[in-house]
Amino acid sequence: MKKLQEQIISLKKKKNAVILAHYYQTPEIQEIADYVGDSLGLSQQAEQTQADLILFAGVHFMAETAKLLNPDKKVILPDLNAGCSLADSCLPEAFEKFITAHPNHRVITYVNCSAKIKAMSDLVCTSSNAEKIVNSVPIDVPIIFAPDKNLGRYIHQKTGREMLLWDGSCVVHEAFSLDKLIALHQLHPQAHIIAHPESESHILETARFIGSTSALIDYVKKSTTTEFIVATEVGILHKMQQAVPDKKLIPAPSFENNTCACSQCAYMKLNTLQKVYECLQNESPEINIDASIAHNAVIPIKRMLALSKND
Ligand code: 13P
Ligand code: SF4
To answer: Can you give the pTM of this predicted structure?
Structure first.
């Protein structure tokens, strides 16, 4: 593994490439990345990069966002099948009908959607800035929020805004078992439950803190508590544990998985170190977006980045 990592690092230098990785990637991929972060941080890095080639170690919509921000650069993704259940839950034809049926709404889409959906949106948001983006819409304007109904419901509760929610969700965050979580908390009564807002409301109701992947890491760093039950994809534990080596981090239990008390995003895990190497060497698979879609899709992303300049 070390040898493959060294080969990737040397190829990266030779090609003036940057590797951007999400927290849900495997530790060995995170270790060779130039930047590891949440969706907002990754978009900000993609916007600022001076590299000629961007290898995105994450899922398709993230690489697409990087391409939209860098139309003249080559953006590559180790496995084109690295999708997202949220993005898949919102297909363009149905979404167009939905928007048309509800005129006079401002359309806000969570970044976990395809470029075609972004092209139909007024604003994009991530879980880091969803509240701020929703609050940027004038108070008397109703909002369509897609595709994540769980994040949408959570932001609606926080802001009190009129929000029409698309019925999409994340397979990973909907796999947490409330019964198992309660039982686990009884074994660790001092632990703070912390959760990503893609989780269902009954999980969020148990949480001491709710936030994006970056916000969850910040919380465990700043908290005086020493034990946490973490309800998000288990890949986050790598960076989180590095940030708080003396604290105990316990993955929240999911329904299906009785052998390992964790939730893994199968899409994120399609990327492997070997595929990263081959992708960098062959500069393929490449992300390409139809110019007419790209033209409209980048507008709401740029609006979001301008509103999140200081985040
Ligand atoms: P973050 O923006 O918090 O990294 O979330 C991305 C994601 O896909 C969570 O499932
Ligand atoms: Fe999509 Fe869920 Fe995987 Fe995130 S964890 S990429 S929302 S399927």
So the answer is: 0.95
